[in-house]
Structures are given as structure tokens and as C-alpha cells.
Design brief:
The chain contains 14 helices and no strands. The protein is an all-alpha fold. The protein has a single domain, classed as Growth Hormone, Chain: A. α3 runs antiparallel to α6 and α5 packs antiparallel against α12. The longest helix is centred in the N-terminal third of the chain and has 42 residues.
């Protein structure tokens, strides 16, 4: 009987992971249809410094909410409801983009989008974790594969729509075409939210923590130091908007930018699942540390090279980095979290990233404006190498679970 129950749980767990992956696929399809275009659109009436402020403020809101939503999901076993609320913001975001008339409108839209991301990320990752059980790397890898596939499909659809709606000979940004794409992008977001209805959440007894307080969360020193390293790395990991601005500054057209982004997303989608599975078979440090080094190589390359071939290679490498982090790092954080607090710790992980991104976007905007464009990416590479070296020492520490 127990064996039959185990098989049912495994089957339901796999179904949940696929459904959650489809939710991310459709919502990311919706988001990536507009993400590069929003940055290009925004750059027509806002400076790089203002773009850095917008990205930083948006990420800070998401960072604060990730820990709290993860905690709420653990305490009340309402992860699915939180994920539903968070994903619904993707629709409101596109509507606000459509009606935006300046950078303030874009800021409000992005804040709504990041609030949604802050609410949904930790509960969703916790749902993936409880569905994946002993194969966490595989679970997160499969989810990331579908997530990035959606991103790739979104870019393809954006390329098609942009080609149909915009006169290729025009040198100005076609605002009406951008707004049309913003509206169309609502459709896949609706499909993603529909898929979420069929996800089943495992109900647990109410957690005894009475209120959200770090004093009630006892983490191993090794995990705390790991989260600090994540924060250090994230200080150099500025918003992808700066990648879009970089290639636009080099002379890439909006279509060229979309194709570059497509290469990044497709590469990440293809390698996420196998790399996630690999992280279950070998020590996760053997993937996480190389991932940070790979990031440094990519950003240093983006600072130094401006040819199409090199940028395509670098964006593909960036996709591999994202796949490595999605499977190995999230799995490591999850398996080292206290029992019953997976969502909370995943939220803390997201907060460490988000707070780092807050500083990263401000710093990147300032370096870009007052020093040089290339220095923006050199700084990111240096921070990544510092984080990689720090991880060597963190992983050498003994853990109670080892």
C-alpha cells in the first residue's frame, strides 16, 4: 500500500512540476514579449541613470516581499493562492504599460510587476521543491527549462509581431506598435494562470511561528554565509536591461536585440533540464562555482567585444549560466533549509538576490553615466569572481546535514 502511495505521490509531484512549468512558460512568454521592447521604449525618454533607478526600485520591492510571502506560504500552506495572486500581476503590468505616457508610468507598471514576482516566487519554488522531493535539481531544472522555453517563444512572437507592425526603414520608435504588442501579451499570461488552477498543494499543519521574524528562523552558519555570498554576487548582477542598453548602444536594431535575447533564452531552455539532473548526481558546488566564473567571463566579454558573432556566443553562455544557477543553487538552498521552512528560506534567498540587484542597478547606472559603459560590465565581472572565491571557502565548511 505504501509503495502504491509513493508512486501516486511521485506521479502527482511530476504533474505539479510540469503544470508549474507551464504556468511559467506562458507567463514568461507574455513577459519576454515585452521586456526588451520596454527597455528600448523607455530609453527614448529616460536616461540610463533613471533606468537604473527604476530597475533598482522595482527589484527592492520584490526583494522585500519574497521572504514574507515565502513565510506566509509555509505558515498557512497557501502557496498556490499566493502564486495565483502574484502571477495575476502580469496582466495588470501589461495594461499599465499600454496606458503609460512617460518613465513614471513605466515605473508604476514595473513596480506592480515586481510586487507580483515578489509574492509568487518563493511559494512557487516551494511548490516545486515539495513536488520534486529527492530530485530537487531535476525538478528545478525541468521547471527552468519550461520557463526559459516560454521566454524564447515570447521573443519569437515579439520578433514576428514587430516585423509585421513596424516599418523596417523607420529610424524612430513606433509607439503604437509597442503598445499593440503590450496588449497581445496579455493572452498567454491568462493561459498561464489557468494552468495554475490544476496544481495540487500538499497541506501541512500550521507552522508554530507566530509572526514573521528572523529570530524564529534558525539557519546553519554555512547557509547564512552562502546567502551573504549570493548578495555579494548580486551587487554586480545588474538588471538585464543594461545588456539591452549595451547592445543597443553598439548599434543593434530592436530586431537584432530580440534575436540576441532569443539565443540566450533558447540556450538556457535546452541545457536547464540536463544540468539540473547533473546537480543531483555530483556535488552542487561543482556547478555553482563554475557558474559564477562563467558569469564573470560573459560580462567581461560584453565589456570588451562589440562584434555580432562574439555577442551571440556571449549571450548563449549567459543562458548556460542561468541554467546552472536555476537547478544547482536553488536545490542547494532548499535541501539546506530547516524542515517546514523551505518557502521561507527560498524567500530569503530571493531577498538576498533582490537587495543585491537594488544596489546593482543603482551602481550600474552611475558607472555607466559617470565612468564608462565598459566599466559597468567589468565591475559586474569582478563582483562575480569575488563571490566565486568566497564560495570556495563556504563550501569547505562542515554542515550538520553532511
Amino acid at each position: 500500500m505504501n509503495e502504491i502511495d509513493d508512486k501516486k505521490q511521485i506521479k502527482q509531484g511530476f504533474k505539479n512540476i510540469v503544470l508549474l512549468g507551464l504556468v511559467s512558460l506562458f507567463v514568461d512568454l507574455s513577459t519576454e514579449m515585452v521586456y526588451p521592447l520596454v527597455t528600448i521604449y523607455l530609453s527614448t525618454f529616460a536616461s540610463v541613470a533613471i533606468i537604473g533607478v527604476i530597475e533598482g526600485l522595482a527589484e527592492s520591492v520584490a526583494a522585500i516581499l519574497k521572504s514574507y510571502s515565502g513565510y506566509i506560504g509555509d505558515k498557512f500552506s497557501n502557496k498556490k493562492i499566493l502564486a495565483f495572486i502574484g502571477y495575476s500581476s502580469a496582466i495588470i503590468y501589461k495594461i499599465l504599460l499600454f496606458f503609460s505616457l512617460g518613465w513614471v508610468g513605466i515605473l508604476i507598471a514595473k513596480l506592480v510587476d515586481r510586487i507580483g514576482k515578489g509574492i509568487r516566487t518563493a511559494p512557487r519554488d516551494a511548490l516545486v521543491a515539495e513536488s520534486g522531493k529527492k530530485t530537487l535539481g531535476k525538478a528545478f531544472g525541468l521547471h527552468k527549462m519550461l520557463d526559459m522555453l516560454g521566454s524564447a517563444l515570447g521573443i519569437i512572437l515579439a520578433i514576428v509581431l514587430y516585423s509585421l507592425l513596424v516599418d523596417s526603414s523607420s529610424l524612430t520608435v513606433d509607439v503604437s506598435a509597442f503598445k499593440t504588442i503590450f496588449l497581445i501579451s496579455i493572452i498567454p499570461a491568462l493561459l498561464g494562470i489557468f494552468c495554475l488552477i490544476f496544481v495540487k498543494e500538499t497541506k501541512h499543519a500550521k507552522n508554530e511561528l507566530q509572526k514573521f521574524s528572523l529570530k524564529g528562523i534558525h539557519l546553519e552558519k554555512k547557509l547564512i554565509l552562502y546567502l551573504i555570498v549570493v548578495f555579494i554576487f548580486s551587487i554586480g548582477n545588474s538588471s538585464n536591461a543594461f545588456l539591452v542598453l549595451r547592445v543597443t548602444d553598439i548599434g543593434f536594431t530592436p530586431i537584432d536585440v530580440l534575436i540576441l535575447y532569443l539565443v540566450y533564452n533558447l540556450t538556457s531552455s535546452v541545457v536547464s533540464y540536463p544540468l539540473g539532473k547533473l546537480s543531483d548526481k555530483i556535488p552542487r558546488r561543482k556547478l555553482v562555482i563554475p557558474a559564477y566564473i562563467l558569469y564573470a567571463v560573459v560580462y567581461l566579454g560584453i565589456a570588451l567585444f562589440d562584434t555580432s558573432v562574439m555577442l551571440y556566443i556571449l549571450f548563449a553562455m549567459y543562458g548556460v549560466f542561468q541554467a546552472l544557477i536555476a537547478g544547482a543553487e536553488k536545490a542547494y538552498v532548499t535541501e539546506n533549509a530547516p524542515s517546514g521552512l523551505k518557502g521561507t528560506v527560498l524567500g530569503l534567498y530571493g531577498t538576498a538576490q533582490g537587495l543585491g540587484l537594488l544596489f546593482a542597478s543603482f551602481i550600474a547606472g552611475a558607472i555607466w553615466t559617470y565612468i564608462s559603459i565598459e566599466a559597468t560590465f567589468v565591475f559586474a565581472a569582478i563582483m562575480s569572481l569575488v563571490a566565486a572565491i568566497s564560495l570556495v571557502f563556504v563550501f569547505k565548511m562542515k554542515s550538520q546535514k553532511e
